[in-house]
Amino acid sequence: MTELGFVESSPKQDGRNMIMVLGPHKKKADAKVDIQADKDSKAAERAALEDVERAERDAAHAAGPVAQKKERGRSENLDPEIEA
């Protein structure tokens, strides 16, 4: 809490409500710049991670087809007079 702001008015109890006024250390414009920089860095990390995942997926698809499924035989519990 202390890294974000400071206590302007100490806590006061009014019945069952407690009131305390806090003030920020930074100006609003400085805080917006920091937040935007954090968003940009996270977006760059996310884009790099997506590129890596896409490359892995493409490599897996280029490796070849998936193993063929085994052909299923006729079920034993079917009536032999019914053509399937």
Can you give a write-up of this model?
With 84 residues, the chain is of the alpha+beta class. It is 42% helix and 21% strand. The chain is built from 1 helix and 2 strands. It has a two-stranded antiparallel sheet with strand order 1-2. Strand 1 and strand 2 (17-24) form a beta hairpin. The longest helix is centred in the middle third of the chain and has 35 residues, at 28-62. It is elongated, with a radius of gyration of 32 Å.
SSE arrangement, N to C: EEH
- Uncertain stretches of 5 or more adjacent residues: none
Percent range for β-strand residues = 15-25%
Radius of gyration, CA atoms, in whole angstroms:
32 Å
Instruction: Report the helical percentage.
Output: 40-55%
Number of distinct beta strands: 2
Protein structure class: alpha+beta
Adjacency order of strands in the biggest sheet: 1-2
